[in-house]
Amino acid sequence: MDELIYCHAAATITDQPVSNSGGCLFNLIDDCGSESKKNKTKCRLKAGKPKIKIMDSSGFHRHGKNKKGEPTLFNENKLLIHKGVLNPMPNHLVQAAREVPSDILIVTDNPLSPVDGKENQDYEFFDKLIFNVYGAARTATLVKKYNLDVDLYLVFQGSSVNHIDIISETLEPYSFDGIAMPLRKQSISKIALFLIRFWQLGYKKVHLLGTDALFNLALAAYFARHFFNLITVDSRGYKFSASHNQYRNPHNLKTVPIGENVLIDPDVDMDCTCPACNGRTFQYYQNQPYPSRRVLLCTHNFQAIENMGQKLFQHSKTPCSLIDFLRRKTDRLKEIEELCDVLSLVEVFKNKDIRYLEDHLG
Fold this sequence. Notes:
362 residues; alpha/beta
């Protein structure tokens, strides 16, 4: 397959991008938390016709509540939302997947809190390891029980190669079709290190949670072309930018303010041919009332990110071809050189013990 697909996340029926390409990530609580939400999601997916559909287990909802000091439950015998308290468990996830079909199902997990220092990172990893192993194993068991026609993705909640190996060894009796990884604010070198380890362990499909950054997409494009059968990425950045009247430049993904009474950078051309922009001008956008402008920008921004991903993939034949393409698109020379160094090291050490690459990138 060797493909890179960008997926929109957090869409609603009113701001779902109009597009015949890309994918859609939806989640258990926001999109399948009630019969009404399930029906709306099915209608939205039918209308949007995404290339690929991914159901996420809403671990980030649990993380958000815990970060605020609010309780969450871990009880399969209670409802998904029990007396106002979140309780996303494997049985809720699989039941939703039986009713709202997807192509990829991401196992139940409990995200790690970002902490500094190896000792703190190890503590956070092991503190949540028991539930994360249980969530993955239980989801896999239920998917097999109900014979769901879906690719099941494990989630890597960790911060080192050692954490990857511990999870992989612990869950060896269970079968997963791919692996998902939240990027948070990880560096290009760290992401590349983890991707190589996934590849060495035999994973053919990867989902990167929460990114549409240019250089993350470039790295994903290279790995999709040379290491994996499929890499999907998702973000709500297309929507966040739209809500702030920001147009993503299709040539480099920079944000361009285009709200009313804003002087638009004259160096930015309106040459986009997406459904929202074709035949229109920036002035047309500015003259729209905010709700209409936001909807148009959701479609444009999504298409700009998806198209950039495809262009990066096309130019990823070699590290040099990808770097040359980026040099023509952006003046972010420091990041270009970092990516060049990372890809060079990846090619040198990809077939060796991961510790060699970890010494250089970790």
